[in-house]
User: What shape does this take?
Amino acid sequence: MSDLAIELQGIDKSFGAVHANRNINLSVHKGTIHGIIGENGAGKSTLMSILYGFYQADRGNIMVNGNKLIIRDPNVAIASGIGMVHQHFMLVDNFTVLENVMLGAEENAILNRGIVNARAELKRLEDEYALEVDPDAIIEELPVGLQQRVEILKALYRGAEILILDEPTGVLTPAEADHLFRILEQLRDQGKTIILITHKLREIMAITDEVSVMRRGEMVATRNTADTSVEELAELMVGRRVLLRVEKGEANPQGIKLSVEGLTVKDGRGVVMVDNVSLDVRAGEIVGIAGVAGNGQSELLEAITGIRRAESGTILLNGETINASGDADPQDLRKRGLAHVPEDRHHMGLVLSFEENENAILGYHYDENYLNGPMLNLDNIRKSASESVEKYDIRPPDVRLKTANFSGGNQQKIVLAREMERDPTVLIIGQPTRGVDVGAIEFIHKRIIEMRDAGKAVLLVSVELDEIRALSDRILVMFAGRVVGERTPEATEGELGLLMAGVEEEKEAAQ
Amino acid sequence: MDYFQIGLVTLEATIRLSVPLIFAALAGLYSERSGVFDIGLEGKMLAAAFAGGASAAVYDSALIGLLIAVIVSVCLALVHAFASITQRGNQIVSGVAINFIALGATVILGQAWFRQGGRTPQLGADSRFQTVTLPFSETLADVPVLGPIYNSLISGHFLLTYFAFAMVPITWWVLYRTRFGLRLRAVGENPGAVDTAGISVTQMRYLGVICCGILCGFAGAYLSMAVAAGFVKGMTAGKGFIALAALIFAKWKPVNVMLACLLFGFLDAGAILMQGKSLPLVGEVPVQFMQALPYILTVVLLAGFIGKAIPPKAGGQPYVKER
Assistant: This one.
């Protein structure tokens, strides 16, 4: 038994009515990379939080290196050599790297000597694991890849032998993710045990030795990665066969419906986020914008949809000018046939405390169908909401339910139904499947293709490169606010990855 | 020489008036750096002033007065902590409630106990703080320029005054050079980072709020037992809010806090000096205008001259573990 780093026996955990973990058993061998895969809400993060002492299990045992432990709080986990790299980094943004690494592991009440020792120890770790970071850099000034490195160093500084990584690649470029995998492999080769939580099948196949699959709070299977396949894992995750490849026919592009010319947008701090971007979207085609989050995609979408004022540039919708640097008004644009599925449904797409039927008309509430003079026509609103609930298979099919009580995938479907059912000419979609489970992804992708085939012009922004490649007819890559290249969907991931990292940029510019 | 005298008097008044601001603003700094906004500085200060004045009168001792002032202020701080940290309530509502409780309770209790219209009895020499004369101040008084400066500006203040100014570097040192300070700053920025590092967020925030209570106690004691000889109803007169403005103005940094408080104290001193006098060109300046000046200044300067004052990122938000 001594070759097991972690053994979980019968872990059970409920949050109120939600049964997050059900009788979970898990064995992780020392010196391996063990993947845990499952859809959002399958209970992966809860399980790891229990292991890290963030929550306590209702029932069950935790054995670390063969010893039974009661992990009351993170201190116990840290003391027994468990370190965690959280999905949302647990770093203090305005602290230096060194301060973040020290936090909670300071030697004395007064920092003087502690700082000197910590600096030396950090240097040693950086050398030993080839993880260079400037100890005096301020966190918020570092790129995310390096911030993650600081998180790993933090865990190692506390003597972690078992490292848990929760969705570590969500914020990374493909190249950065590859680099992370190399680091993880190296850590494994030096004897560390690594638990990798993810919902990306490709990552599991690329790096893990063993993989455990979770579904709806249960551990459904554990496999040797070498003996399994993407298809088998996907089926285990969802509980039924899933079509991983999106079926789509040839595009049949018609006239230009959306035309952006020389668009420049600044953010609130006055930093140029979109830099002289031009693009066209034709009826009957999907134009995908690939890029690492934060390279201006959000601001581009906001400028096109009239939410953010542009500095300069012109936007033509159906050949008519949108006053993007003046008083473009989202409501007016909507009336002119521009539908918008915002990137962040919680902040822009929905009012979570509203009922489903209320969200189903947000932004279209001026529609005469929904009005009775100055009053809302609740009967009509609920009737049309019921229809789209049925058509989009939104579950539970209850239009009076508070929107916060729907799962991520169903919330996204509410937004999609609202925007797609209005027969728009141009559809702007940001992150269509962020935080959405595999089953719903399949459905959403199909709907987007249907919109294209119905002759809509679709502009798609996603940080999921696979999604961009699967759906788009043309791919534009954004880096540092500029469109640095256009590719066909046949372009390889490596090629797009280099563009996304800005590596190919100069070559492009020279052409 | 006349102007020199006026200048000295104004600066002396500046120091006297900025002491309660410095105590209160530093108090707010500890609380807000830990992520708990505190609009109840005013109430804590007022309650402490009353408690200090009342107990100093009853026990005939300034030290007991100070002790009880601090205890009462800390108790109110704990109420705020319980409401906003343990119960995850709204920090503004809780702070406002404390202000109202202090405003009403001090008058009612004062009237019930002493029957002097909400005042506490006049404190005798033993039961209030006395000014300290630094060595050689008499002998050096005749030295031109430096002598008067030493004599009336540096010497001759209350011990609490020196303590207030000493608290500035002490707070800086605590904040940036100790483990407590590192954790306090971290918990106000990203409590998640503190929690995952195995430190109790609740405990850190309680400590921050308790530090706030202690310093508010000193601020109140200074008002009723040092500059005045007893409590008068509503004697804080908005100083807690000016201290809050100073804290924002100073971007939550200790040395800046001192400078901001001195500036606001100077404006206050100027307002007193200007009373009934008229300036060349502008004529008589209404007192109300001078009193409003710190607030106007805060708004104007924050609006464009000193850049954005970014509060501790997690300030005002109760910490709830993410699922």
Q: What stands out?
A: The longest helix of chain A spans residues 111-129. The radius of gyration of chain A is 25 Å. Residues 4-238 of chain A form a domain with the Rossmann fold fold (CATH 3.40.50.300). The interface with chain B takes residues 15, 20, 45-46, 52, 54-55, 73-75, 77-78, 84, 86, 88, 90-95, 99-100, 102-106, 108-112, 114 of chain A (CB under 8 Å).
